[in-house]
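Consider a concrete sample entry:
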Amino acid sequence: MEQITEMFKALQTKFDEQARELKEMKESIPNSINKNIDEKFIILETRQQQLEKITEEQAQKIQKFEKILRKKNLIFFGVEETENNYFTLQNKILDLINNNMKVDCQKGDIEYVSRMGKKSDKTRPIIVTLTTMGKKIELLKNKKMLQNSGTYYIKEDFPPEVLEERKKLNIQLQREREQGKKAYIKYNKLVILPEKVNSQQERQKRILSQSPETATVIEKEHKNTSKNPTKKNIMDLYLVKNKPVNTEIKSPSHQLLTKK
């Protein structure tokens, strides 16, 4: 009976060991799988971050390149679409610039002209690439002369994302102007000009900020500099300095006659 009991205990011990081993195996398998998954996930996440950084850098380079390409562009709106070739369109733009805008512009000032978009019932705008920034600035200064016609107007050429930013900034621009501030949009930034301070008010503020002693000294210096100092005649000084001394010796008889 004792032998059977010992055999049963031994079997029970082996069973417990096997059960423990199975349990450890069950726990180790998902842990190892999870560890492998975590390691692979970290690698993938690192690669994704690297790709995002490269993509962002490339996007910034493309934006800079696109800004350079559009830098000398102007878009003309409202120009009748009656041309049948490139040179007719070019001459039409030259005529508009010279006659309507009163700006001297020759064929050498224009690098490229073209209608934008697909042809339709609506008049398409014309994109004009100028050869110099100076000519573009000159045209922008005279754009009011073109807009006063009521038919034509021009705009700068911006990328789509910049146009979207400018639309949002327009709302803030109107608010600033309603408050009496001078502001404008430059590319994709809102510029608010500082308020000018009256020169007399600024002078009074500076005087009040000084100590009484300093203000008195400044006032005295101002009075002294405002007066015209008397200038001595240089010629008079010279004559006094070089005045001849009377060295004549009078005789006694002459002195007596003088006394009489």
Q: What stands out?
A: The longest strand covers residues 110-115. The radius of gyration is 47 Å. The CA atoms of residues 62 and 68 lie 10 Å apart. Confidence is low (pLDDT under 50) at residues 209-219, 225-232, 243-260.
